[in-house]
Specification:
358 residues, alpha+beta, Immunoglobulin-like, five-stranded mixed beta sheet, 7 helices, 12 strands, elongated, respiratory chain, oxidoreductase, translocase, membrane
Length: 358
Amino acid sequence: MPHRLGIRASPRARRRSPWIRGRDGGIGPPIPHDNEPLAGTVSSGRRRGRRAEGHPVIPQSSHGSRRTARWAVGLTLASLALVGCSDAQRRGFMPGDTEQEVTNQTGRIMNLWSGSWVTLMVVGLIVWGLIIWCAIAYRRKKGDTGLPVQLRYHVPLEMIFTLLPVVMIMSLFYFTQRDATEIEALSENPDVTIHAVAKQWSWDFNYVDEDVHEPAGVQSFETGTEGAEESLPVLYLPVNKTVRFELDSRDVVHSFWVVDFLYKKDMFPGHSTSFEVTPTKEGTYKGKCAELCGEYHSDMLFNVKVVSQEEYDQHMQELRDQGSTGQLGLDLNRDQQDWSIREKDAERDQKKIEEDSK
């Protein structure tokens, strides 16, 4: 016998042997009492295979209870995380207001944004989980030699890895195209039409239906001093009215962006673009150029005031009273000068340079 010969059995041999180790360190068969199994043991227990006689048995119900407890803790933590989300987190860190939509399209845009990110996060967690699991479960173990079994030409897996990305991309394309079509749709008779003209580095706003305009926008410099905000161009919009924006640029490519509207539209010289939106919440909202357009791009700012119909009508009358009638056209540059005058000034300067060089 191994213990009589002074040879210790290996751990693997002890696991396979039905014999047990005695208190004196020797190995021998279990000692039954009155031909009955030892108290707290079974003759054929199972724990990842066949259990040796004499080993204590852990009730299976305890494993189930522990597993249930772990799931309960995980679900509780997940619920607390969701409940504790701030307004910004619930919006996917998008600008705007969680309690009330700023326009008739912000809810649609926010749902598309958040839904896309949730889908990507789920896919990312699954992919990274599989990568980490494979790295741990199939790592090289002590005693392993050679290369592991290689997997080739697994048609079901290849079909899954091909079809799943196609389905995901097509689904994302469908929802994006559906919402983009709705957002870009134009009505036949909008309530208000605004002609916005971008220029380096300010804005001109024309109220087409009222045939008035805001005072010509002058480039602003945000120095942080008191009153700097009031110097920005201001655009007035009536609440709960369909507004069509007709956009043009006088010089380079710009982009019209009211941040809380969650939408921006590029503006090109010689090519008009347009979109419609219905403001649904009164307030003052910040606007800016969203396309790098030169040295003072960051100072190309404006404000949008969404007001009641009465206040909007009152402002239109104020513009008429101060003489801001008609429309500011595309024949003006950033300094509100006629292009022909600017060309004449350039010719005069060139002649002066030539004369000085003689």
